[in-house]
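Note to self: keep these together.
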Amino acid sequence: MAIAKSTLAKIHIAKQQLGLDDETYRVMLRSVGDVDSARDLTPASAARVLAHLERSGFKPTGGGRRPRVAAGRAAQLAKIEALLADAGRSWDYVNGMVKRICKVDAIEFCNGDALAKLIAALQIDSKRREARR
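Structure:
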């Protein structure tokens, strides 16, 4: 059974984040996953490899992915991303807001007005957090 593309991508991101050269990476795959290539990993061996990479210092970003929206809304998306980073929150947090505030399933379905509502809500949250400090 092959591993998911997202798991394979996560392994490659870890390799890059840890600065592993190709030889070191291959040795690790052989010793931890018993394979020569990450695409040959089983789900169980991929989990072992990821656990090893995390013990070695890999810090998964987690929290979902940055959505793709039309170029006209890219500036709004960048503002949302900046507000999330300032709050230390992930894209999963916004996904919940999208369902509550905009009444759609994903941020990709939001128009400019809906994105403006999300920005306003995140700015209000930012001011609340600042007042607590």
